[in-house]
Amino acid sequence: MIHTIFALATAPGRAGVAVVRVSGPASGDALAALTAKALPRPREATLVKLRDPTSGEVLDDALVLYFIAPRSFTGEDVVELHLHGGRAVVAGVVEALGALPGLRVAEPGEFTRRAFENGKLDLTEAEAVADLVDAETSAQRRQALRQMEGALGTLYDGWRDRLTRSLAHIEADIDFPDEDLPSGVSDAARPVLATLAAEIDAHLDDNGRGERLREGLHIAIVGAPNAGKSSLLNALARREAAIVSARAGTTRDVIEVHLDLGGYPVVLADTAGLREAAADEVEEEGIRRARDRAARADVKVAVFDATALPALDPATVALVDGDTVVVLNKTDLSGDSGGIVVGGQSGLTVSARTGDGLAALEQRLTAFAADRLAGSGVPALTRARHRSALEECRDALRRALGAPLPELMAEDVRLASRALGRITGRVDVEDLLDVIFRDFCIGK
Ligand SMILES: Nc1nc2c(c(=O)[nH]1)N(C=O)[C@@H](CNc1ccc(C(=O)N[C@@H](CCC(=O)O)C(=O)O)cc1)CN2
Ligand SMILES: Nc1nc2c(ncn2[C@@H]2O[C@H](COP(=O)(O)OP(=O)(O)OP(=O)(O)O)[C@@H](O)[C@H]2O)c(=O)[nH]1
Ligand SMILES: [Mg+2]
Fold first, then answer.
1. Given the CA of residue 251, which atom of ligand 2 is nearest to it?
2. Contact (Cβ atoms closer than 8 angstroms) between residue 352 and residue 206
3. Which of 89, 106, 156, 245 has the most C-beta neighbours closer than 10 Å?
């Protein structure tokens, strides 16, 4: 029996309106049980009193929608209850639904999973639904919307179609080797396979742009103790996220804030000041984490202290590379001491105290983010799951190209095609579904 599932689709807590969604064959019966009335016309917002079916008590005066399969988000019968968003209203309706036969609470992502299983979405589109819900910046929203509209699915299905046609040629060669076919039909498949392998390589070779756009560009602030790293983080975040004090060695844990820089998502991390003589083992561990974070960051902000000039902290200098923005902080205290050049880069002069130079720093970081994350119009792969399937496909194509016999070639082309099919969910993906949908929020 297919269960009918329900869940709060809007965020939990007090709100103007809360939406409870119900999907499955018993949806209509559930609505009828709550309204004690004939069902409203499909897809037409209707104001009705919802009552507890056992006590008859009015729970809310709600706007309801009834969708009949297959014309709904999930492809099943769906009911939406648009409630007054009070906790007691939602609790009362959810409790009443749970008491009805055949109904149970939905698991995370289960509505979208049913939409996939009913052919409303392919897997890349379903993943994009989750990404759209998680999108915090406009660039993330655009990427998710494009993928939800099928940009990636169409690309991968197109590649798979080309493989299917090549496979037909190769199989013709296997089945009718002596017939009147032009000799070596599988030879004709070779350039097609080679072109596709090159296209997949180009698609893979994107520096993880789409994946990083989902997760945010990682920027680490590094520098000597007291250079003003935490002050800088707070100034960029526009809130007091990290503790600032005049004592060297204040920050120990890595402190992260999420920023929206010109539409690009950034995870900015404050780290412990680097020094040889740590005060204790806690600071020592902090410094280890700071170095680790610096090593894994996409971009570093190396902060130097203008009041320490002409000395430049050597541990910080050692971390400056092509992915580093050099910053000279506390310039409000140093007068007109001129700038610094580290690793061939002239530093931005800023003051976390007065805010001087912070706009220029933000601009530099935004430029880094745009450089790493901006698209060129072609859709980018957005998940490690896609990447590994594409690598599997490309490797199978390379083997096919080197195959001495059409039979062996055909087998590798089949594997290549299967790898692509798993991305969009066209072939056996039952084993993947729990993993993919468990990261969704409840009610989606
Ligand atoms: N109230 C409400 N708002 C919502 C959703 C929802 O489920 N409920 N959505 C949920 O994420 C999004 C909209 N997505 C939807 C996608 C398809 C269908 C749907 O009924 N599809 C039918 C009919 C298509 C048509 O009329 O053109 C179908 O595919 O057959 C509904 C919502 C955002 N807003
Ligand atoms: N005048 C002035 N003082 C600053 C500036 N930036 C930071 N400070 C001061 O410098 C001291 C150290 O600042 P923090 O931001 O805690 O320095 P930090 O680099 O995070 O230090 P650790 O966490 O110990 O590594 C504090 O007293 C700040 O108020 C600045 O631009 N101008
Ligand atoms: Mg600090």
1. 23
2. no
3. 156
Grouped pLDDT means (10 residues each) for the chain, 444 residues: 95 96 98 94 98 96 98 98 98 98 96 97 97 95 96 96 91 72 67 95 93 95 98 97 96 96 97 92 96 97 95 96 96 83 94 96 96 86 96 97 90 96 90 87 87
| Residue from 73, 82, 83, 121 whose mutation best tests the ligand 1 pocket (most atoms within 8 A of CB) | 73
Residue 23 · residue 114 · CB < 8 Å: yes
- List residues, by chain if needed, whose CB lies under 5 Å from ion ligand 3: 229-230, 250-251
Amino acid at 422: R
Ligand with minimal distance to 329 CA: 2
| Atom nearest to 333 CA in ligand 2 | 1
Asked if residue 80 has its Cβ within 6 Å of ligand 1, the reply is: yes
Contact between 328 and 339 under an 8 Å Cβ cutoff? The reply is yes
pTM reported for the whole predicted model? 0.88
Q: Are 78 and 72 in contact (CB under 8 A)?
A: yes
Q: How many residues does the chain have?
A: 444
- Asked whether 72 lines ligand 1 (CB < 6 A), one says yes
ipTM for this prediction: 0.88
Number of H helices, E strands in the chain: 16, 14
In order of their start, the domains of the chain are 4-106 (3.30.1360.120), 153-206+383-438 (1.20.120.430), 213-373 (3.40.50.300)
